[in-house]
Specification:
The chain is α+β, with helices and mostly antiparallel strands and about 110 residues long. It has one domain: 2-Layer Sandwich (GMP Synthetase, Chain A, domain 3). It is about 45% helix and about 15% strand. It has six helices and four strands, in the order αβαβααβαβα. The longest helix is centred in the middle third of the chain and has 19 residues.
Length: about 110
């Protein structure tokens, strides 16, 4: 479901959303951080509008996936603060190229795949 939702985001904004943060590093995590580079957003919307849209998209992601999604559209500087960390692109992965980190993030046993 996470990849399907990511595909919908990619189709809507014509940008790839990425899974980042603690869920990518393994161990304990409290939310599923999803980031998307949208440098134009800060130019055409107020900070409050960007925040409101981030909250709305996070709630939509939670509803669709059942996961505690924390979505943020970000400008260049904030987005590149994750450089050097694992960024897992959402929405474009096939089941034959299934990523074990995402399997962990979804809480699935090692043999199960969505």
């Amino acid at each position: 479901m996470l990849d399907q939702w990511g595909r919908q985001l990619r189709d809507a904004f014509e940008q790839t959303p990425y899974l980042v943060g603690s869920v990518e590093r393994g161990g304990d995590w409290r939310d599923v951080d999803v980031r998307m580079l949208l440098p134009w957003a800060e130019d055409v919307m107020s900070p409050f509008a960007v925040y409101t849209l981030n909250v709305a998209i996070s709630l939509w992601g939670r509803h669709v996936t059942g996961l505690p999604i924390d979505f943020q559209m970000q400008g260049e500087e904030a987005f590149h603060s994750y450089d050097g960390e694992t960024r897992n692109p959402l929405g474009g992965r096939s089941k034959t190229k299934y990523d074990g980190v995402t399997k962990f993030a979804l809480g699935l046993p090692s043999g199960d795949r969505p």
